[in-house]
Amino acid sequence: MSGVNEVEHPAHAPGAPIVTVIGDGQLARMMQTAAIELGCSLRLLAGSRDASAAQVCADVLLGDFRNLASVREAAAGSDAITFDHEHVPNEHLDELIAEGFNVQPQPEALIFAQDKLLMRKKLREVGAPVPPFAAIESVDDGLAFWDAVEGQVCLKARRGGYDGKGVWFPGQREELRELVSSLLEAGTPLMAEKKVALRGELSAMVARTPSGATQPWPVVASVQENGVCAQATAPAPGIDAELRRRAETLSIDIARELGVTGVLAVELFLSEDENGQADISINELAMRPHNTGHWTQDGCITSQFEQHIRAVLDLPLGATNTTAPYTVMANVLGAERDPSMPMADRVAKVMHVVPDAKIHLYGKQHRPGRKIGHVNACGEDLESVRRRAQAAAHFLRHAQWPEGFAPESL
Amino acid sequence: MSGVNEVEHPAHAPGAPIVTVIGDGQLARMMQTAAIELGCSLRLLAGSRDASAAQVCADVLLGDFRNLASVREAAAGSDAITFDHEHVPNEHLDELIAEGFNVQPQPEALIFAQDKLLMRKKLREVGAPVPPFAAIESVDDGLAFWDAVEGQVCLKARRGGYDGKGVWFPGQREELRELVSSLLEAGTPLMAEKKVALRGELSAMVARTPSGATQPWPVVASVQENGVCAQATAPAPGIDAELRRRAETLSIDIARELGVTGVLAVELFLSEDENGQADISINELAMRPHNTGHWTQDGCITSQFEQHIRAVLDLPLGATNTTAPYTVMANVLGAERDPSMPMADRVAKVMHVVPDAKIHLYGKQHRPGRKIGHVNACGEDLESVRRRAQAAAHFLRHAQWPEGFAPESL
Ligand SMILES: Nc1ncnc2c1ncn2[C@@H]1O[C@H](COP(=O)(O)OP(=O)(O)OP(=O)(O)O)[C@@H](O)[C@H]1O
Ligand SMILES: Nc1ncnc2c1ncn2[C@@H]1O[C@H](COP(=O)(O)OP(=O)(O)OP(=O)(O)O)[C@@H](O)[C@H]1O
């Protein structure tokens, strides 16, 4: 008998395509579950053996995604190379493409998910709605923008932000001056956009294949807390059909215009125009499965993870009809202090009280604010669906039910 | 950078339970997809690195399930040990239990899924309906049974049969005599039961935890072709509520009486009683996820694979409401001759023509008659659902649409 440490060659399904994913987080992990059912399996370039996705893949290469040799080694022999984040240097990807590798999405598209300023310039160029914005290369640029938008300023790092990190809302002209000055000094390229009076946030997601086929999902409403996605509701309630169609069309147009392949998430601001009519503008693009698409695992015929695999392999896209009138996804974030009740006991408790909650955990150690899982709930009555998803996620986080929640009330 | 061959210790999620599965087939593979989403991951005792489940697990031990040392090594450090087949020798399991391992289901229950004669004796003892049967230890036993049931004989090997192998329907008394004589000579323990005039076949599935909680699924109708499950429809159409309830109750009672833990499938004969009323009797028990439960992956809140993991870990069971009015599962069996069109191209074609087909492939090489995958389709109109599932599975098998099927007719 030989243990795993003596096994040299991880096997993949005979005749099935191999997808290499650069990255080892929960998105790669959930791509693996989709891949398995499709009869494939992933090859992973992971930072460590105990990373979320590395726990559940047979074919794991340990290495650094900033290192061309590592990325090339992971890519060797695979049918498509894709990502669970946007941080692989584009020059490496250009090099791989030059060497004949099939990288999806490609750097020409990825650049617009990496740089918030280039993204906005491109979107404006193709006629997509974005709030007023400007490059901020000096304190004077900042102050001029402040004046132009009458102090309604949202300052953003052009690159590397996530979960609200790299986003600032200076309340005073003076505060903006100091912020810009110290950030530029620290070498952070900046842009500013007008602070939008938010009625809410939406997410329009779509998949696109290299051959050009597109398939959108129903638009969802998302709730952010401290810059982090806390909840998503599909389909977005209280949005009229025209606006829904507009958001959907927008996501398809952007995927086409920017040459996106795989899954694209278009995060949208929902606001009001001069006439008090609902209006949308674009906040952010992500070119991979996205937190606001996790609901598709349990509420949609084709999940975003399956669709991403299909898309990067240039396979026909799956149907995106919902399988329930409403699905609510609630994120499980690490609490400020991890409760003493072990996570396994919290899971058991939630399973007991909410037997239809779909619990998804990422195999991650607790850290305050860290995304460690999510819960989906489906059903007809939105309030009840939301209560269940929220309560389940809250208990997984705090080992307590939310205030006012009586477990019997389900 | 180090490749996978230098990795020594496969990691599991911190704080999450580890389930060891003895076996490496598609059932173990699909347990892994369920485990991943629950935040765990499986440890596998596999026969080879390229086996269906071994392709998709990080923690794989290679070894023989008939070897106690191998089974013990795979079990070490896991929270529960379970199976994707019934062939682990019970004396090994007794030994592991004596050593303190948590084996689910336990040999006391498993024996009734291993030996068709013991199963029937036990079922009769607890008052569950089985066709008339007898032990066949001699040619005379066989002939006496032939006379007692007026030639309506189904002869079965007591152990080791699957997919109709080990089941015979002798047409003549003389044929029975020869069969029994040669099988006994070859050392095959036998039993016989009355050949039932089948109206159809049903499957009643249920999960049970070590603590005694039970949760049934809706009863499904199955279609067998040459002794192999070809199709399952959930819920079983054309069955009245009383019979459905009876089958469901029966599965729960059997799980309790036999002390089954994990998933139990009760394969049922559907026949007519003296008054022409629909009647059921038991054909077979399986104590693990079962082919007739694959529909739950796409048509039910909790799949049989997730439920099995929950059950063997003694976690609360998930809801088993359906998520669609009808789900049809169609098996993909290896064709007599594998078509020249590569499987990957067949998959692409099916994805194009049936975008809502849920394709599940097992990563297996073609062999005639081998189960290599299945397709689920869901919807309101049973005929259309069945047509789509069947057509998709047929194309994956033959690289041709079924006769009379026009792709546009969807
Ligand atoms: N122009 C704006 N006006 C009003 N609110 C804004 C604006 N830009 C950002 N926000 C708020 O800050 C949140 C985080 O901003 P943004 O999405 O740009 O950050 P991020 O770090 O890239 O986050 P993510 O990981 O969600 O992409 C938004 O979801 C929104 O609630
Ligand atoms: N007593 C019977 N009367 C009529 N048909 C029978 C009888 N027993 C078995 N069959 C037919 O033969 C098929 C296979 O029999 P059985 O389920 O016992 O075999 P198996 O090899 O254990 O199959 P499986 O892998 O499905 O459990 C049944 O599904 C049924 O169609």
From TrEMBL, chains A, B:
Official protein name in the record: N5-carboxyaminoimidazole ribonucleotide synthase
EC number(s) per entry: 6.3.4.18
ATP-grasp domain mapped to chain residues: 120-313
Native source species: Corynebacterium gerontici
GO BP term, pick one: 'de novo' IMP biosynthetic process
InterPro entries documented for this protein: ATP-grasp, ATP-grasp_carboxylate-amine, ATP_grasp_subdomain_1, PreATP-grasp_dom_sf, PurK, PurK_C, PurT/PurK_preATP-grasp, Rudment_hybrid_motif
CC per GO annotation: cytosol
Family (UniProt): Belongs to the PurK/PurT family.
Pfam families for the chain: ATP-grasp, PurK_C, RS_preATP-grasp-like
GO terms assigned for molecular function: 5-(carboxyamino)imidazole ribonucleotide synthase activity; ATP binding; metal ion binding; phosphoribosylaminoimidazole carboxylase activity
Assembly, per entry: Homodimer.
Binding-site residues, ATP: K116, K156, E193, K194, K195, V196, E201, N283, E284
Catalytic activity line of the entry: 5-amino-1-(5-phospho-beta-D-ribosyl)imidazole + hydrogencarbonate + ATP = 5-carboxyamino-1-(5-phospho-D-ribosyl)imidazole + ADP + phosphate + 2 H(+)
Pathway recorded for this protein: Purine metabolism; IMP biosynthesis via de novo pathway; 5-amino-1-(5-phospho-D-ribosyl)imidazole-4-carboxylate from 5-amino-1-(5-phospho-D-ribosyl)imidazole (N5-CAIR route): step 1/2
PANTHER family according to UniProt: PHOSPHORIBOSYLAMINOIMIDAZOLE CARBOXYLASE, PURINE BIOSYNTHESIS PROTEIN 6/7, PUR6/7
This protein's UniProt keywords: ATP-binding, Ligase, Nucleotide-binding, Purine biosynthesis
Free-text function comment from the UniProt entry: Catalyzes the ATP-dependent conversion of 5-aminoimidazole ribonucleotide (AIR) and HCO(3)(-) to N5-carboxyaminoimidazole ribonucleotide (N5-CAIR). Catalyzes the ATP-dependent conversion of 5-aminoimidazole ribonucleotide (AIR) and HCO(3)- to N5-carboxyaminoimidazole ribonucleotide (N5-CAIR).
Superkingdom of origin: Bacteria
